[in-house]
Amino acid sequence: MPRFIEGTFVPPKGRFAICVTRFNAFITEELLQGAIDTLVRHGVADADLDVFRVPGAFELPSVVRRVVDSGRYAGVIALGAVIRGGTPHFEYVSGEVAKGIGQIALNADCAVTFGVLTVDTIEQAIERAGTKAGNKGGEAAMACLELASLFEAMGSRAEGAGAGGRGKKGR
Ligand code: INI
């Protein structure tokens, strides 16, 4: 029988942070509510949850990086909504935010998940913010819980994977 090392949805020790953009707030506030609701219903205490408000998706990576580097969190969730307009601005903003958060996630000692919508229309954004296609903020929160729990099960990089130890930063 193989040994399975996997996360659960029981919050690991430590705090969670949500970084959410103000741009397209009518959508991102719904993503935020979905993420908070998911974390709290899985047992994260209000006192262990911080929300950072960010101007726009372009600024998300710089804020997420500072939050991660603080070492205070077991998990960080990035939320935003980039909606295509008539100019190439969409491509630059959506490209930068995906690349930036991806690089941070790869190098972070804590769980970092991506709940940034990149859609062609406002209708598609609405569908993903708590209507037909679910709530991508809630999904990013679920993924963050599972990944943080998996990291806890794996132990920190310093301790070696599979050690079952706790991470070294703020957990
Ligand atoms: N920011 C978003 O979060 N979503 C968008 O759809 C968007 N569009 O399309 O322009 C957007 N632009 C602002 C950008 O993120 C920066 O805040 C701005 O360029 C200042 O640096």
The CATH homologous superfamily is named: Lumazine/riboflavin synthase
Helix percent band = 40-55%
Q: How would you state the average pLDDT, rounded?
A: 92
Q: Please count the beta strands (DSSP E, at least 2 residues each).
A: 6
Q: List the domain count as a whole number.
A: 1
Describe the structure.
With 171 residues, the chain is α/β, with parallel strands linked by helices. It has one domain: Lumazine/riboflavin synthase (Rossmann fold, 3-Layer(aba) Sandwich). 42% of the residues lie in helices and 22% in strands. The protein has 5 helices and 6 strands; from the N terminus they run E-H-E-H-E-H-E-H-E-E-H. A hairpin with a 2-residue loop joins strand 5 and strand 6. It starts with 14 loop residues before the first strand and ends in a 17-residue tail after the last helix. It binds 5-nitro-6-ribityl-amino-2,4(1H,3H)-pyrimidinedione. The site of 5-nitro-6-ribityl-amino-2,4(1H,3H)-pyrimidinedione (INI) has 16 residues, from strand 3 and helix 3.
Helices and strands in order, then pairings?
Layout: E1 15-21, H1 25-41, E2 49-54, H2 60-69, E3 73-83, H3 89-107, E4 111-119, H4 122-127, E5 129-131, E6 134-135, H5 136-154
Parallel strand pairs: 1-2, 1-3, 3-4
Antiparallel strand pairs: 5-6
Helix pairs in contact: 1-5, 2-3
This protein binds 5-nitro-6-ribityl-amino-2,4(1H,3H)-pyrimidinedione (INI).
5-nitro-6-ribityl-amino-2,4(1H,3H)-pyrimidinedione binds next to strand 3 and helix 3.
Summarize the structure.
With 171 residues, this protein is of the alpha/beta class.
